[in-house]
Amino acid sequence: MLEHTFIDEAPEAGPAVSALKAGKPVQTAVAGPWQLMWAKFSRNKVALVAGVIILMLFLVGIFAEFLAPALPETARPQFTNAPPQELRLFTTDAEGNRHFQLHVTGYTMTVDQASLRRSYAIDDSQVVPVGFFVRGAPYKLWGQFPSDIHLIGPLSPNDTMYLMGTDKLGRDLFSRLIHGTRISMSIGLIGVTISLLLGVVLGSISGFYGGWVDLVVQRVIEVISSMPTIPLWLGLAAAIPLTWSPLTVYFVITLIVSLFGWTGLAREVRGRFFALRSEDFVTAARLDGSSERRLIFRHILPSLTSHILAVVTLALPTMIVAETALSFLGIGLKAPVVSWGVLLQDAQNVRTIANAPWLLIWPSAAVVLTVLAYNFLGDGLRDAADPYES
Amino acid sequence: MQMQAVKTERNQQGQAGDVVLKVENLSLDFRLRTEILHAVRDVNFELRRGQTLCLVGESGSGKSVTARALLRILDRNGSIASGSILLAGKNGDIDIAPLTERSPELLKIRGGRIGLIFQEPMSSLSPVHTIGSQIIEALLLHRRMNKQQARAETIELLRQVEIPNPDKMIDRYTFEFSGGMRQRAMIAMALAADPEILIADEPTTALDVTTQAEILDLIKRLQVSRGMAMLLITHDMGVVAEVADAVAVMHYGRIVEAGSTDEIFHNPKHAYTKRLLGSTVKLEQNPRASTRATALPADRKPVLSVRNLNKIYGASTSWVGGNDFAVKAVDDISLDLYPGENLGIVGESGSGKTTLGRLILRTVEPTSGQVTYFGQGEPVDVTGLSKRQLKNFHRDVRLVFQDPFASLNPRMTVKEVIGDPLIVSGKVRGAALEKRVGELLELVGLDPMVMERYPHAFSGGQRQRIGIARALALDPKIIIADEATAALDVSIRAQILDLLLDIQKRLDLSFIFISHDISVVRYFCDRVAVLHRGKLVEMGSAEQICTDPQQPYTKSLISAVPHPDPRHKRMMHRTRFTA
Asked: Which fold has domain A176-384?
């Protein structure tokens, strides 16, 4: 038979662990939900980088006038479809000494007499000195504060610098892209805010009360999401009077995009409500005497905010893509407003792509970068949204 | 016939009592984010043919991962740090520990030589395959049968695990089986390849007491007739006493004590074993006579009375067509609760005990019947209260939940959780609130300093204390505890029950204690009501129900409860109830 054995010491007080990293253990006992979420989120490096990129894009949008070397609407007919110039660090002066001077090189233009097509070649002999915080074209920051300081630009206001080339009217693509960032990034934000309001309110009502309220809201969602979006946008956008100012058109376009974007959010919120409604802690709060408003705002919604944040982050890029698509088709934003979609409008034909590929490459790159960054950020947020599961 | 052949071969191989599996100095490490958890440390044990070794321990003791390591089905972050698992074979021992993940030897052992029964019969069977096809698959994989043979063998296996009409049940789906039936099917699957070793990981924890007794009975008989070695993992000392030949007690990853069942139960050496047995045996008594505040007067008036309460689910007569199919969840129940009394409501799953609790609180609306509450002033007809009036009732009658994890909002600090009912009632604010929360925390045996912490910083037992503090915040008269100790380890369970009894002595409280656990009810309650399929079967004093039940159902229920004393096994001569 089995012999009786035992360990002759007092019972241990806790499980045996050995630390992987030196350092004091993280104090999580008093850490709130947002602290825990941050701890989980910051472990996802890709999402962290994506977050930084998004932040930088917003900063670019906010300080567009200052960051852009030129005004977006300044056209120079002598430089139509000029190729991008390279930013160089050293120049060689007359004596043959190399010294540091940030500069771009000029162009020599030749005109093909048969087709009257202009072609540009980089001319190393022409040096356009470039500097930081230079005085250039005057502007008003946010339409309020007059200034003429630009982060980067040619030292002499008469020179030109086209880091990303120019479009068919000779406007600086780099400056236009920076100004486009402001419109494209904000249209997503404003659109999502409207979607968020609609989605959270209708989703909460639907999920909290259930029954016929839920039935009605869900059928409405299904009807809306069953509509083919592009023809609908086309129709609605075509109904915008041509006499409206570009700013009004901008808001109407956001409204149109967001009116169809709230359904996914509403479904997500409803689902969460359903799950949370039957949680014990909600029943407990109900038995504590909480009113329905208190139940929703004090107990259920705080558990949802992190999820909503993640869903919103994932909804933003669809808004941006929608705006880009509308503007590309010529029914969204129109000149003189500059957005990425408007910029892409210039790259609609094969001739442009053959002669001036930068008109396609840079705006598309901006859209792709933004959408990817938002998706990675959203995925990271979604994973971190519930710091309490296991 | 083939099985016979295998059996004779087996009998030539070895005698009962031979060591089939030997675990030597096994250590398991789990890589967590900031630390390595040494979940199992230097564990040694042997499995002998025809004998049962029980691994006992509370949650987190490492008993389940030890069993999983034998089949090498650890989670991805877990690894065998050292030690060997020697499986006896014809050509010497095979060490399972160093085998590679997909090696043919390992695949042959898994399910072939070692069978496994999981805890959760609801999720361990595939819902989209028939029961038969899942067992046939095991047979085709391990026994080299053709399909007809496998089917015949499967029917034979289902017969052995005592599933009625096995030739019909073989083509049924999982959802057509009850929990006990599923566990039987699971056992049939584990036995399909005729293993030498059977690992049962908490096989009856998710089952009712009577079903548990039947399944344990079955496993024991199959083990003896097939001469298997069994490793049974459980937290329940009662189960250990009923079925084990040898016991190993695990505590924080170490086997602190091992020996024959009789030695462990009657001559425990290690302090932890003593403590574990102490809390189990303690629940076998009824201390109420000594803990009750005052002797109950003869002509007492009830504080809550339930009359002819009914709840019917599914019977609808709406205009889209009525539904004839109806379930009587609570069927004509009448009972009284007296001041200062602890009333236990006992029943198996589906007996309507939880529904009864919810009906009294009216979180579920009764179909018919009356609940009357005699608080201060006029008696209140609870079934007729408006939503606003119901709030006052809910201040006097509070609920303690089963799950200490789901019942506390993880996004609120302990202060906010306990203070919430106080804020809602508008009674206390600011510094007074903080003081009151501190008092409540002290009352339930927690340090008032912890009120700024979030629930995730607490263990299950501590969380349950917080839940009790929340229930006490509004000076209630009645507390309905719905399986309040079911999710806790046995030593914590006894502590929480003692806490509730202690609080009752200090405050003027009555308890309705809903539980499936007879021993808990016996320890805690004055009177017990036994529910079966929505009906009140029997009611009497706790002592009378537990020692001298009158109704046949109660008799079968009480006799199915495992007795934590290997010298007085109860289950073997239990009364069976057929309805």
From this structure: MetI-like fold (1.10.3720)
